[in-house]
Amino acid sequence: MTLGILCSGQGGQGPGMLDMLRREPVAQAVLDRAATVMGHDPRALVAGPEAEMQRNALAQPLLCAVQAATWAALRPHLPPLRAVAGYSLGELSAYHVAGALDADELLRLAVRRAKAMDHADPQPGGLLAVRGLDRPKLEAVCRDCGADIAIENGADRFVIGARRTTLTAVERTVVALGGTVTPLPVTVASHTRLMTPAAVEFGPILVASGLQAPPLPVLAGIDGTPVYTRERAVTALTRQMTDTVAWAACLDGLIEMGCTVLLETGPGNALARMAAERHPDLAVRSIADFRSLSGAGAWVERQLG
Questions:
Q1: pLDDT tens for residues 19-45?
Q2: Order of all β-strands in the sheet with 226-227
Q3: Can you tell me which residues the record assigns to a coiled coil (predicted)?
Q4: Contact 289, 272 (CB under 8 A)
Q5: Which domains does the chain have, with CATH numbers?
Q6: CA-CA distances (angstroms) from residue 305 to 2, 81, 196?
Q7: Does the reported pTM lie above 0.85?
């Protein structure tokens, strides 16, 4: 029985996302350092207007900073890991959890990734969660409207990316076909063709970065297969900016690698809920479900026996 870690993506950030870290000195030290690297104190951002936390330029490094701080405090409570997977932006944090990126380099990359994505398309973009339509039907909708499938979460659960004007047309069509939609608090069309200029800019940044071959396997978001080399890590992190994220395949890949317990780093518990829905017999929780990081660690120990 082994443990896998799920690193959350954008969307779960909110005013309480640092509450569990307030009495964790090692986490506060990471946040102190993050304030220097980012040029913004993560704690001040979380205490400020919630709309600021949704701005892509701030949201991406903020989430990576919080996950790095969380991991620094959580790691001593956990047994050895088997593998790590990250959802969308969370794939970058997954390489930190796996030991392939130090916290400073993670934040530098998050800042530059967000900047590249903001500059990729001059028109406002976004993401729309869609449920109730299978992939062939949704692909037809995307072709007709000029949108892309950004993330595949399951057989009838997807995220669509496009310019905001296009997403309005997608929403109307999906609802007419009997599906349901939920706009996501993301301000760029992540994982779509609109991010091609961002991938062209960010790829060389990754090549020149301090990213190392992951000591633990990280599942590539684009296909759910394990990454063991630096070259493949660079390729996977570059391609996921424009290609569909196969999150369902990542969850299946963790099971195939022998993970019997999954723990999500938060904020929120969206990944834990998706994993539980896809694999009902799996032991899976998020740290957001607990009152303390030590409590999360104790739950993992009980599950692993």
A1: 999 999 999 999 999 999 999 999 999
A2: 226-227, 218-219, 81-86, 2-7, 259-264, 283-286
A3: none
A4: yes
A5: 2-120+193-304 (3.40.366.10), 125-183 (3.30.70.250)
A6: 10, 15, 46
A7: yes
